Amino acid sequence: MTQNDLIKTIRMNYLFDFYQALLTEKQRNYLQMFYLEDYSLSEIADTFNVSRQAVYDNIRRTGDLVEDYETKLGLYRNFEKRKDLYDQIKQHSDNAERVLSYIKQLEEIDE
């Protein structure tokens, strides 16, 4: 697996976590098996008795769909911002002024 494939897989796992409730059962199954459980397209096709191409098309379309949800809703983007700010708070816990600044930024994310 290349570095780009790994990054995409990690991103898709997060997007799946945030948006799976908005997907159909089939979409959830395909993404879960492909990205979370590392099934091959052929293994998924055999499981659901469909063609490998059908699985590929569904995974690609569903990936585009969750990316569209992320563009519109930004749940993963806000999660990443919060995580970065929490890390900054931990690193600068001895500086009250900086910590308060980071807390203010955290509050602004949800506004």
TrEMBL record:
Q: Which PANTHER family match?
A: UPF0122 PROTEIN CBO2450/CLC_2298 (PTHR40083), UPF0122 PROTEIN YLXM (PTHR40083:SF1)
Q: DNA-binding: present as a keyword of the record?
A: yes
User: Which species is listed as the source?
Assistant: Staphylococcus arlettae
Q: Which NCBIfam families match?
A: PRK00118.1-2, PRK00118.1-6, YlxM
Q: For this UniProt entry, which segments traverse the membrane?
A: none
Top-level division of the source organism's lineage: Bacteria
One GO molecular function term? DNA binding
- The answer to keyword Cell inner membrane applying to this record is no
Name by which UniProt lists this protein? UPF0122 protein NCTC12413_01675
Question: Which key words are in the record?
Answer: DNA-binding
Q: Which InterPro entries match?
A: RNA_pol_sigma_r3/r4-like, UPF0122, UPF0122_fam_protein, WH-like_DNA-bd_sf
Name the SUPFAM superfamilies for this protein. Answer: Sigma3 and sigma4 domains of RNA polymerase sigma factors
Q: What is the lineage of its organism?
A: Bacteria, Bacillati, Bacillota, Bacilli, Bacillales
* Free-text function comment from the UniProt entry: Might take part in the signal recognition particle (SRP) pathway. This is inferred from the conservation of its genetic proximity to ftsY/ffh. May be a regulatory protein.
